[in-house]
Specification:
globular, eight-stranded parallel barrel, binds 2-phosphoglycolic acid, 15% strand
Length: 251
Amino acid sequence: MTERQILVAANWKMNGTLETIRPLLQSVIQGVQGITTEVAICPPSIYIPELAVQLNGSDISLGAQNVSHLEAGAYTGEISASMLKDFGCQYVIVGHSERRALYAENDALVARKFIAVQAKGMTPILCVGELLQERESNNTEEVIARQLDAVIELAGIEAFKNAVVAYEPVWAIGTGKTATPEQAQEVHEFIRLRLARHDNETADNVRVLYGGSVKADNAEQLFKMADIDGGLIGGASLVAEDFLTICKAMR
Ligand code: PGA
């Protein structure tokens, strides 16, 4: 089996002010020194230039939470992949469930964002996950398959050579209801199997993160599972001590 390096990515969502993010960032930069886990931070886009400066010289990667699928033009309020690239972003989250639910992003649009990110040499973090009623009606695999297939259809399995997948059950996001390590592992394995229908090696190498109420006290149990390669962390990434404990949770 391939050794996949753990990735812990912070998704700050729409939180913080310069006054709060500066000390948070300094604590994280100092706290992650010397660890083998890869750490990334995805701040609100307006703070990307600030983080680009602060993270310079650290091992922490910079990411964005969203991007336009279009290159340039009359699209008021949007931010392009080239702009994110300009400020040194390495990762861009696409298809977060909040974008899907609150901003009506569908699978086809998410796939186009995925391609736009890769076209500029950055790595998409593709979020997939089922709603509570979808899990309860035993449709989890069907939903995840549909979300993955939309990207495979447009970008090809090749595209997953430079991508990260994040499994985020919608019922676990910001609710304090984490999926059990076994529940998460089951879906992570399914994600790999779905990709393996097209290419085994790609399926084996792609990093699949878990997201949804990952906290300082459950990260290690989750990251121990065979197919879980780290986490996408919302709430707990806003508290330096909690986030650092998660970053240090080993396999
Ligand atoms: P949470 O968010 O850790 O606050 O549940 C995770 C996410 O939405 O990426």
